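From the pipeline queue, job 12 of 40. The input is one protein chain; the requested action is below.

Action: predict structure.
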Amino acid sequence: MALIAVYSVKGGVGKTTLAVDMAWRSAAVSNHSTLLWDLDPQGGAGWLLGLPNNPGKRAASVFHREGKPRELVTATRYRGLSLLQSDESLRSLSLTFARIGKRKRLARIAALLAAEYPRIIIDCPPVLNEISDQVFAAADLLIVPLSPSPLSARALPMIREEILKNHPRHPPILPVLLMYDARRKLHREAHAGFAAGWPVIPMNSMIEQTASRRAPLGTFAAASEASQRLQRLWDGVEAKLALRALSSPLP
């Protein structure tokens, strides 16, 4: 099993769109039975996959002693892709973690789900608190989408410092430059500076259509440049997981 977390400390950088795309490629391209676990109270992952809003308030219950995560998993219209949907109960999730005091509760639940889902992808909320601490402890790979801006240059060192503070053996971090526009000087400077060597996903109208169509990009524009860039990113994720498995086999 491999747990891949898509995480950012700020919203509006395309985090959920990227998480949904990576989960779809895991299922549709790599043929893994994949679970997309939405921990963001906004519930964008389910919406992008064409599912109705979750009216319940049970998403946080999976972390309780009597929680039954399998009962909350929903099939999507895409073969091999399931969703553990978000709802409003996750707004108090950090308090739940603080109360139960178990820093690896999320990791243990993921291990229970691993028999059915060799790939679990988490859409994380943009926070630095008990939730992110649980994610960092559980993840095999952390994908960090960042925009080409000076604030992003500050964000990545902040994330690394926070992880190292509590997790000396932290998961590999894969930063990704999203919403890149080569026509903009600031973007070019970011690409040549703090983001040099990162995977780059361009600002593209086809990616914006994933929201209006409520479908992953590869389902309607597989030949587009943006989809090909996203596929190369997913190929890189798979390669990193394979190397990690060789050095320390995944459970």
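Job complete. The chain is about 40% helix and 15% strand.
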